[in-house]
# Entry
Amino acid sequence: MSFSDKFELVCGVETHVEMATKTKIFCGCSTEFGGEQNTHVCPVCLGLPGVLPVLNKEVVNLAIKAGLALNCIIAEYSKFDRKNYYYPDLPKNYQTSQYDLPICKNGWLEINTPCGKKKIGITRVHMEEDAGKLVHSGETITTSKSSGVDYNRAGVPLLEIVSEPDLRSVDEVLAYLEELVQIMDYAGISDCRMEQGSVRFDVNVSLRPRGSSEFGTRTEIKNLNSFNSVRRCLEYESERQAELLLKGEKVEQETRTWDEGQGITLSLRSKEEAHDYRYFPEPDLVPIIIEREWVERIRASLSELPAAKRERLKSLGLSEYDAAVLTSSKAMADYFDEAFTFGVDAKTLANWIMGDLSALLKIDGCSFENSPVSPRQLAGLLNLIKDGTISGKIAKAVLEEIYKTGKDPEVIVKEKGLAQISDAGALEKIVEGVLAANTKSVEDYLAGKETALGYLVGQVMKATQGRANPGLVNKLLKEKLSR
Amino acid sequence: MKISRKEVEHVALLARLKLSEEEINLYTEQLNSILEYAAKIQEIDTENVAPTAHAAQLFNVFREDEVKPSLAQEKVLENAPEAENGFFRVPRIV
# Structure
């Protein structure tokens, strides 16, 4: 059964992004991932009595930058508030967050849908601190006797980005999330390491009969940490709600959790009464006043965003698909840009980056940021093909050699004697030898069997270890055979 | 009465306080007298005054993004009622 014939999905997403600062939001502890438990903590992030938080200026800079990248209005006056709840991942029993005066609001980003471009509203972007990590000792969270708490992550700066409920299909949600994460990556707001949990999503899901303009009752599913989990969770939850509605039952407004192993969402109803956050202004932190000049300074430092980059790549003659793949990570897009400055054909370059080089990097789990083949070396390799020094086939072998040794392509071609044989005199002898040794194929060809020519070309390539200029070989063979 | 018994019970639950019947009655009464006293401030005309979150005329106090030494793990756990393998140990949560 599919819900989509009868119902339309209505979805909004809250995205939590860990910001790329060196230190925590209110103290000088390192934000580095993977430290031994409870070693990146101090009296401030432990919430010991009498300590005072001091806001990290870089957090505000990055928040303004994120707001600009998402076309938001940057608040002239902003403040922090306490969000009170009782859970051991928060040493203070409250999270320092922003309530009624977030730093950014009323923005949008654009996604591609089958029906063209669509703007998705961004309600607000606010700054807050991350919580600690709970490690459960027993089999599962509900059977363990006790939990261990590591506060290394407590106080790591987060941006919470809240979308409008503008998303109408699972594909739209995914397109929105991918675009958002790309923007955060490009603007340098976050390193967006999904596998380290530096981006997490809460989705609000409801269904309504197709054609209706009112919203149905929604559920909120918290703490999804990959695109794949979001997709599976949304597919499950919309089917679940559709089944209830088709049976004439009501969807309960509640918070649910995603069980990755079972692939289902579960009610967290037991905690509903505790969700009374009693926000009030944080007395320990003074307000922030952001003058125009500060915003403009940040705007000037904003690098090219993915949408603009895709358009620019398309203007170089690349297809929509190529532009999308190349810009899927900032590192890959930067690699392309740098290599392109060495005067190579855009399409050829794109093919090599997306094809052979990507494949090599993937084997070792390397990224374009630390590619053993530099953009200059790849461009050099393509120029060797272009000027006829080597064939495309030999170039693949040279690429692997650059990857392994770090040597320049020109050096490898010289050392290994890989330069293409384009000397007609030298090739002519080889061609004659091949013809003399393959009289059967020659007869076949002369009898009208065109494919025999391919075999003869192959023999010449074999005799030259692939170094013969293929165009010239073809030409010479045809000349000889027509006599 | 500004605050009901029920609200006192709710706030006690949120603060993880277990109150006896007498305590609930006592605190309801006491909280109400405090709130009534504080309500005096409502008599002031604030028609043309912008909402204020902070009384001090201070703003934009920042620190630079520079790493400072953290505490040693044994120091961190020194006051913990229970600790294990470098973690704080807390009772089962859910």
